[in-house]
Amino acid sequence: MKIAFLGTPGIAATCLESLAKGSHEIIAVVTHPDKAMGRGMKFHPTPVKETALRLGIPVLECPDAKDPAFAAALRALELDLLVIVAFVVLPNAVLDSARLGAINLHGSLLPRWRGAAPVQRSVEAGEPVTGGTVFRLDSGVDTGGILLQERLEVGEDETSGEVLMRLASQGGEWLLRAVDMLAENPDNPGIPQDKALATRAPKLFPEEGELDWTLPAGKLHDKIRAFHPAPGCWSRFEGLRLKVWRTRHLTESVTGEPGTISRTAGGKVAIACTDGALELVEVQPEGKKRLDAVAWFNGLHAEGAVRLGAPQLP
User: Fold this and answer.
1) Element (H, E) at 62
2) Per-residue pLDDT at 313 exceeds 70
3) Residue that terminates a domain, selected from 167, 197, 227
4) What number is the average pLDDT over the span 157-177?
5) Packing angle of the helix pair 10-19, 47-55 (nearest 10 deg)
6) Is the confidence at residue 5, as pLDDT, over 50?
7) Same structural domain, 190 and 109
8) Buried b vs exposed e over 238-258: b needs ≥16 C-beta within 10 Å?
């Protein structure tokens, strides 16, 4: 099979590595143009581009997937299949540029969690199981026929970033299996999805990350895991934002209004919630580096109660 691989971030680069070990020919890799980053605003290639160049695969940069010239460039390659991981929504002209269309790796057990942030929304919901789906792309959003699905167990303290790393490490093998399936049976439409079971997984926004300590501890813990590593959860403290990167469930009892921080008998830093408390593990004051929550709390030299969530930011 003659394949073009489309993707941009690290998870896609890991899948590309695995796919390249198969027997199919990757004719080209498509990714976003180099992006200016850092203080010097130097241009840096995407993780997918770096991987493709290391593997000796030609790279086609795509500034605008809707540009008719992009679809024409893909058609000129006389491809059998497009394989897509974490790329932009593609118009039909692009999906139709390969003989067998396009397949995509999605980070959920479709039709659950259709959308831009399936892993994050699954973790936020506290689900103990997620997975990956390889499916045929059509004109809908994550609605095409399912070629294969695999489940992934999610640990109670595992973050979205950690789940995505495991998904990436296995996703390339799943993609390769799906390509092999289509090589044997090109007319395989996949299993239709039951739209009645569909849920949405919209993109995460930074303002969603503000923590409301009046919520149950379990919901807060799941949200903090879901928003790690990006965009991160935060709380108001002394007029600035304090990012809360990691928490753990706490069995020790604490007192105080929701948002009140205290030390437990075991020396942990606890924050009170409506139905108990969480252990603060890692935080980051605004404009500073991440640090252990115990070190941060000790550095406050607080004589009275310390409470997150107030005063209001200017």
Assistant:
1) none
2) no
3) 197
4) 96
5) 20
6) yes
7) yes
8) eeebbbbbbbeebeeebeeeb
